[in-house]
Amino acid sequence: MTVSLNPDDEFEATLIEMVRVHRFKKSVYGSNEDPFANFYDAAHHLAMTPLEAAIAFHGKHDAKMTKWLRDGQPTDAPGMEDMFIDRAVYSVIELALWNRRTANGRWGE
What we know:
Layout: H1 10-29, H2 37-46, H3 50-70, H4 80-104
Helix pairs in contact: 1-4, 2-3, 3-4
């Protein structure tokens, strides 16, 4: 099924940006074999599952955003929108890792 997104719709424009960010970051952090390779690598080094690693990375952004808001950082500060997008992308990656684990019955390293 092909889905086309409307860049004039705020929600769909955000999804387009999420895809753009994910494609860029997987080219930097992923591998040719697995776009989520960095989560498996981090999980190995931190003695946790790839999903737990993704949740930890997500949590780092949550903590930074909470500090910015608590300390009065302007909500239009550069980086705030990027963090919202990153957090949304992490949520989708977490779901993809969960689905991978559920489908395979293991993490499949």
